[in-house]
Amino acid sequence: MTVKPLTQKPKPNLLRQFANFTRTVAGLEKTCRLIQSFAQIVIELNITPGSTTTAQWQTTRSQLALTRRFFRFFAFIDCFNQVYGLLGGAQGLGLFMTLVEIGRWSCLGLYLVLEDLTILHALGVHPVAWNTPVLVEAFKFWFYSLALSVLGAVWGLLFTSSSSASSKTTSNEKKKEDKNAEKTTPNTDNSQSKAQRAALMKRIVVDGCDLLIPGVFVGWMQISDLVIGVTMVISTVVSGGDAWVKAQG
Fold first, then answer.
1. Segment Disordered: which positions (predicted)?
2. Range of the domain at 50
3. N or C, which terminus of the chain has less Cβ within 10 Å?
4. Number of domains observed in the structure of the chain
Protein backbone atom coordinates (compact mmCIF):
# COMPACT_ATOMS: atom_id res chain seq x y z
CA MET A 1 0.00 0.00 0.00
CA THR A 2 1.52 3.27 -1.10
CA VAL A 3 1.02 6.44 0.85
CA LYS A 4 0.55 9.54 -1.23
CA PRO A 5 2.65 12.49 -0.10
CA LEU A 6 0.75 15.40 1.30
CA THR A 7 0.56 18.18 -1.23
CA GLN A 8 1.09 21.61 0.20
CA LYS A 9 -1.51 24.20 -0.67
CA PRO A 10 -0.04 26.63 -3.21
CA LYS A 11 0.61 30.10 -1.90
CA PRO A 12 -1.60 32.74 -3.55
CA ASN A 13 0.09 35.38 -5.64
CA LEU A 14 0.69 38.88 -4.37
CA LEU A 15 -2.41 40.33 -6.03
CA ARG A 16 -4.60 37.69 -4.42
CA GLN A 17 -3.00 38.32 -1.04
CA PHE A 18 -3.68 42.03 -1.43
CA ALA A 19 -7.31 41.28 -2.27
CA ASN A 20 -7.61 39.15 0.87
CA PHE A 21 -6.02 41.94 2.87
CA THR A 22 -8.34 44.69 1.64
CA ARG A 23 -11.42 42.52 2.22
CA THR A 24 -10.84 42.80 5.96
CA VAL A 25 -11.77 45.91 7.92
CA ALA A 26 -8.29 46.26 9.38
CA GLY A 27 -6.66 45.78 5.99
CA LEU A 28 -8.86 48.34 4.26
CA GLU A 29 -8.28 50.87 7.04
CA LYS A 30 -4.51 50.36 6.86
CA THR A 31 -4.60 50.78 3.09
CA CYS A 32 -6.47 54.08 3.40
CA ARG A 33 -4.06 55.24 6.09
CA LEU A 34 -1.04 54.40 3.93
CA ILE A 35 -2.44 56.36 0.98
CA GLN A 36 -3.26 59.26 3.31
CA SER A 37 0.29 59.35 4.65
CA PHE A 38 1.75 59.26 1.14
CA ALA A 39 -0.57 62.12 0.15
CA GLN A 40 0.75 64.17 3.05
CA ILE A 41 4.34 63.48 2.01
CA VAL A 42 3.57 64.53 -1.57
CA ILE A 43 2.00 67.76 -0.34
CA GLU A 44 4.95 68.63 1.89
CA LEU A 45 7.61 67.76 -0.70
CA ASN A 46 5.68 69.62 -3.40
CA ILE A 47 6.44 66.80 -5.84
CA THR A 48 3.66 67.89 -8.16
CA PRO A 49 3.77 71.71 -8.17
CA GLY A 50 0.62 73.61 -9.01
CA SER A 51 -2.27 74.90 -6.96
CA THR A 52 -4.78 72.55 -8.58
CA THR A 53 -2.72 69.42 -8.03
CA THR A 54 -1.89 70.39 -4.45
CA ALA A 55 -5.57 70.99 -3.75
CA GLN A 56 -6.38 67.55 -5.13
CA TRP A 57 -3.84 65.88 -2.85
CA GLN A 58 -5.16 67.87 0.12
CA THR A 59 -8.69 66.74 -0.70
CA THR A 60 -7.48 63.15 -0.95
CA ARG A 61 -5.82 63.38 2.45
CA SER A 62 -8.83 64.95 4.18
CA GLN A 63 -11.34 62.57 2.60
CA LEU A 64 -9.31 59.50 3.53
CA ALA A 65 -8.93 60.80 7.08
CA LEU A 66 -12.69 61.25 7.27
CA THR A 67 -13.30 57.79 5.80
CA ARG A 68 -11.07 56.19 8.40
CA ARG A 69 -13.13 57.79 11.17
CA PHE A 70 -16.09 55.60 10.18
CA PHE A 71 -13.97 52.47 10.61
CA ARG A 72 -13.33 53.35 14.26
CA PHE A 73 -16.68 54.98 15.08
CA PHE A 74 -17.79 52.21 17.46
CA ALA A 75 -14.28 51.18 18.54
CA PHE A 76 -14.82 52.82 21.95
CA ILE A 77 -17.01 49.83 22.88
CA ASP A 78 -14.02 47.47 22.65
CA CYS A 79 -11.90 49.90 24.67
CA PHE A 80 -14.35 50.11 27.56
CA ASN A 81 -14.86 46.35 27.36
CA GLN A 82 -11.11 45.97 27.88
CA VAL A 83 -11.35 48.24 30.92
CA TYR A 84 -14.21 46.15 32.29
CA GLY A 85 -12.17 42.98 31.93
CA LEU A 86 -9.16 44.58 33.62
CA LEU A 87 -11.28 45.77 36.53
CA GLY A 88 -12.52 42.21 36.95
CA GLY A 89 -8.94 40.97 37.24
CA ALA A 90 -9.37 38.47 34.41
CA GLN A 91 -6.09 39.38 32.71
CA GLY A 92 -3.83 38.13 35.49
CA LEU A 93 -1.49 41.14 35.33
CA GLY A 94 0.38 42.78 38.16
CA LEU A 95 -0.97 45.85 39.92
CA PHE A 96 1.24 48.31 38.04
CA MET A 97 0.52 46.87 34.59
CA THR A 98 -3.19 46.63 35.40
CA LEU A 99 -3.29 50.34 36.24
CA VAL A 100 -1.32 51.19 33.09
CA GLU A 101 -3.63 49.13 30.89
CA ILE A 102 -6.76 50.59 32.52
CA GLY A 103 -5.46 54.10 31.92
CA ARG A 104 -4.42 53.24 28.37
CA TRP A 105 -7.76 51.81 27.27
CA SER A 106 -9.79 54.39 29.20
CA CYS A 107 -7.98 57.27 27.52
CA LEU A 108 -8.30 55.64 24.11
CA GLY A 109 -12.02 55.12 24.65
CA LEU A 110 -12.52 58.74 25.71
CA TYR A 111 -10.60 59.90 22.64
CA LEU A 112 -12.87 57.90 20.36
CA VAL A 113 -16.04 59.11 22.08
CA LEU A 114 -15.03 62.76 21.84
CA GLU A 115 -13.99 62.32 18.23
CA ASP A 116 -17.35 60.74 17.42
CA LEU A 117 -19.12 63.81 18.81
CA THR A 118 -17.60 65.90 16.02
CA ILE A 119 -18.42 63.56 13.12
CA LEU A 120 -21.43 65.62 11.98
CA HIS A 121 -19.27 68.74 11.91
CA ALA A 122 -16.65 66.94 9.83
CA LEU A 123 -19.36 65.84 7.41
CA GLY A 124 -20.69 69.37 7.15
CA VAL A 125 -24.13 68.23 8.29
CA HIS A 126 -24.25 70.12 11.57
CA PRO A 127 -21.37 72.60 12.08
CA VAL A 128 -20.74 73.53 15.70
CA ALA A 129 -18.56 76.16 17.36
CA TRP A 130 -17.10 73.71 19.89
CA ASN A 131 -15.60 71.35 17.29
CA THR A 132 -11.98 72.44 17.72
CA PRO A 133 -11.93 72.50 21.56
CA VAL A 134 -13.46 69.01 21.70
CA LEU A 135 -10.96 67.67 19.18
CA VAL A 136 -8.09 69.18 21.15
CA GLU A 137 -9.26 67.41 24.31
CA ALA A 138 -9.79 64.20 22.32
CA PHE A 139 -6.24 64.28 20.97
CA LYS A 140 -4.93 64.87 24.48
CA PHE A 141 -6.55 61.62 25.58
CA TRP A 142 -5.08 59.91 22.51
CA PHE A 143 -1.64 61.20 23.48
CA TYR A 144 -2.07 59.87 27.04
CA SER A 145 -3.19 56.48 25.69
CA LEU A 146 -0.21 56.14 23.36
CA ALA A 147 2.22 57.27 26.06
CA LEU A 148 0.83 54.69 28.49
CA SER A 149 1.00 52.05 25.76
CA VAL A 150 4.70 52.75 25.16
CA LEU A 151 5.33 52.74 28.91
CA GLY A 152 3.54 49.43 29.30
CA ALA A 153 5.45 47.90 26.40
CA VAL A 154 8.81 48.99 27.81
CA TRP A 155 7.83 47.61 31.20
CA GLY A 156 6.73 44.38 29.53
CA LEU A 157 10.09 44.03 27.79
CA LEU A 158 11.92 44.42 31.09
CA PHE A 159 9.57 41.99 32.81
CA THR A 160 9.82 39.44 29.99
CA SER A 161 13.62 39.55 29.98
CA SER A 162 13.82 39.02 33.72
CA SER A 163 11.22 36.24 33.75
CA SER A 164 12.83 34.46 30.79
CA ALA A 165 16.20 34.55 32.51
CA SER A 166 14.72 32.98 35.64
CA SER A 167 12.86 30.36 33.58
CA LYS A 168 16.11 29.42 31.82
CA THR A 169 17.86 28.77 35.12
CA THR A 170 14.89 26.73 36.33
CA SER A 171 14.82 24.64 33.14
CA ASN A 172 18.57 24.01 33.38
CA GLU A 173 18.16 22.72 36.91
CA LYS A 174 15.35 20.42 35.81
CA LYS A 175 17.48 19.07 32.97
CA LYS A 176 20.23 18.17 35.40
CA GLU A 177 17.76 16.33 37.60
CA ASP A 178 16.23 14.42 34.65
CA LYS A 179 19.41 12.97 33.18
CA ASN A 180 17.86 9.50 32.93
CA ALA A 181 15.00 10.64 30.73
CA GLU A 182 15.10 9.17 27.21
CA LYS A 183 13.58 12.15 25.42
CA THR A 184 13.00 15.74 26.39
CA THR A 185 9.89 17.53 25.29
CA PRO A 186 10.58 20.60 23.13
CA ASN A 187 10.62 23.75 25.17
CA THR A 188 8.27 26.34 23.69
CA ASP A 189 8.85 28.93 26.40
CA ASN A 190 11.72 30.54 24.51
CA SER A 191 9.74 30.84 21.28
CA GLN A 192 6.75 32.28 23.13
CA SER A 193 8.99 34.74 24.93
CA LYS A 194 10.61 35.84 21.67
CA ALA A 195 7.20 36.30 20.04
CA GLN A 196 5.98 38.32 23.01
CA ARG A 197 9.07 40.52 22.97
CA ALA A 198 8.75 41.06 19.20
CA ALA A 199 5.12 42.11 19.65
CA LEU A 200 6.07 44.56 22.39
CA MET A 201 8.84 46.05 20.26
CA LYS A 202 6.39 46.51 17.37
CA ARG A 203 4.03 48.23 19.78
CA ILE A 204 6.75 50.63 20.86
CA VAL A 205 7.58 51.49 17.23
CA VAL A 206 3.94 51.90 16.14
CA ASP A 207 2.68 53.83 19.15
CA GLY A 208 5.90 55.83 19.38
CA CYS A 209 5.46 57.00 15.79
CA ASP A 210 1.75 57.71 16.23
CA LEU A 211 2.50 59.65 19.41
CA LEU A 212 3.76 62.51 17.26
CA ILE A 213 0.35 63.08 15.64
CA PRO A 214 -1.59 64.15 18.76
CA GLY A 215 1.52 65.78 20.18
CA VAL A 216 1.71 68.14 17.21
CA PHE A 217 -2.06 68.67 17.04
CA VAL A 218 -2.32 69.92 20.62
CA GLY A 219 0.89 71.98 20.32
CA TRP A 220 3.07 69.95 22.67
CA MET A 221 5.59 69.09 19.94
CA GLN A 222 7.13 71.10 17.14
CA ILE A 223 7.54 68.65 14.26
CA SER A 224 7.02 69.23 10.54
CA ASP A 225 4.13 67.63 8.66
CA LEU A 226 6.68 65.83 6.48
CA VAL A 227 8.06 63.97 9.50
CA ILE A 228 4.50 63.14 10.55
CA GLY A 229 3.84 61.68 7.11
CA VAL A 230 6.99 59.55 7.21
CA THR A 231 6.23 58.23 10.72
CA MET A 232 2.68 57.43 9.61
CA VAL A 233 4.10 55.30 6.80
CA ILE A 234 6.38 53.48 9.24
CA SER A 235 3.67 52.79 11.81
CA THR A 236 1.18 51.72 9.14
CA VAL A 237 3.58 49.27 7.50
CA VAL A 238 4.71 47.78 10.81
CA SER A 239 1.21 47.43 12.23
CA GLY A 240 -0.21 46.28 8.91
CA GLY A 241 2.15 43.31 8.74
CA ASP A 242 0.21 41.34 11.32
CA ALA A 243 -3.11 42.23 9.66
CA TRP A 244 -1.69 41.05 6.33
CA VAL A 245 -0.67 37.66 7.73
CA LYS A 246 -3.98 37.26 9.54
CA ALA A 247 -5.94 38.03 6.37
CA GLN A 248 -4.21 35.22 4.48
CA GLY A 249 -5.26 32.64 7.09
1. 163-194
2. 18-72+219-248
3. N
4. 2
